[in-house]
Specification:
Distance between the termini: 41 Å
Shape: globular
Helix content: 10-25%
Structural class: alpha+beta
Strand content: 25-35%
Number of helices: 5
Order of helices and strands: HHEEHHEEEEEEEEHE
Low-confidence stretches: 1-26
Mean pLDDT: 85
Number of domains: 1
Length: 227
């Protein structure tokens, strides 16, 4: 999750460094996120944007809250002002960061804007944030199926598609969530780790194989032609 959640990532890394042994500190993933996806169509039925929801795991949420100095009485409850201060904590993206969102039509990547219209909530001990990614050029979804993947290339964060994707502004569309072959993905990860450490035993301290796509679920969006 390069570029996003920078402060909290440093906190997580520090906490892991206190754990027993280097192997535990190198283990991936470190953050677990339930992702929600909503397709937003314009009045002409073209795909205009995608809304993304990130629901962080309880441990990561706790670290963020502690690092930001929220919930000083440790009662597990945040005031409205404290919740408001969470908005945008994960939206300071470095140049080149893709936002862990990848959209394709007919195998071709679709260009997206940076994050827009973001906000945050706190539910049952978890930080839940949302933002919108506008398509640079709107697409006719009936021309060819679209596919969406939500993943961190470095596999520092593990994403899971939570709930059925939402469709707003257009009918005649269906979605299907395809799950990866986790056995094959794990084998790919282990092979990449073995190759890296064979060349340099300390390589994992500086980098990690870009295997996140192998673990990613895929949403396929199919739309019938507009009548």
């Amino acid at each position: 999750m390069r570029g996003a959640r920078t402060v909290a990532v440093a906190v997580v890394a520090g906490a892991l460094a206190l754990g027993p042994g280097a192997e535990g500190a190198r283990a991936h993933p470190h953050v677990f996120i339930d992702a929600g996806v909503e397709f937003l169509f314009d009045d002409a039925g073209a795909l205009a944007a995608v809304r993304i929801v990130w629901a962080y795991d309880e441990f990561f949420s706790l670290l963020v809250i502690e690092d930001m100095g929220l919930d000083p009485d440790f009662d597990g409850q945040l005031t409205a002002g404290e919740v408001a201060s969470l908005s945008g904590f994960d939206m300071e993206w470095i140049e080149g960061y893709e936002g862990d969102l990848y959209l394709f039509q007919d195998g071709r990547p679709v260009a997206l804007s940076g994050p827009l219209d973001w906000g945050a909530e706190y539910r049952d001990g978890r930080i839940v944030t949302s933002h919108v990614r506008a398509l640079v050029e709107r697409l006719a979804p009936a021309a060819a199926p679209l596919s969406v993947q939500v993943y961190d290339p470095t596999y520092y964060s593990a994403y899971r598609i939570a709930g059925a994707p939402l469709l707003t502004g257009r009918g005649g569309c269906t979605t299907e969530v395809l799950v990866p072959d986790l056995g094959a993905a794990t084998a790919r990860l282990e092979a990449a780790l073995a190759e890296m450490t064979a060349a340099d035993p300390d390589a994992l301290e500086m980098d990690f194989p870009a295997v996140g796509a192998a673990f990613a679920e895929e949403i396929v969006l199919t739309c019938a032609p507009s009548s």
